[in-house]
Amino acid sequence: MDPKVSTKVGRKRAPNGIDKRQIAVRLMPEERRKLEQYATSQLLTEGAMLREIFLLGLPAWEATHTNA
């Protein structure tokens, strides 16, 4: 087999169009432990898990913070 040909199948971790710039998030040790636990159980990266949590909470935050 040609050593230049990769046999690994790439896994895409983010949807198309995602902004690749990173955002630092400071978590308390217990929050970090929970994030790691949930990410592992869902077979996601910690970043992908945090994005899922953000998307779930965003509508609730917007409902209480918009001046409609």
> Structural class of the helix and strand makeup?
mainly alpha
Helix content: 40-55%
Give the amount of beta strand, in percent: under 5%
Secondary-structure element pattern, one letter each: HH
Beta-strand segment tally: 0
Q: What is the helix tally?
A: 2
What does the overall shape look like?
globular
| Sheet of most strands | none
Radius of gyration: 17 Å
Question: How far apart are the first and last residues' alpha carbons, in Å?
Answer: 63 Å
Mean pLDDT: 85
Descriptive keywords:
single chain; about 70 residues; mainly alpha; 2 helices; about 0% strand; globular
How would you sum up this structure in a few lines?
The chain has 2 helices and no strands.
Question: Can you lay out the helices and strands and say which pair or pack?
Answer:
Layout: H1 29-42, H2 46-65
Helix pairs in contact: 1-2
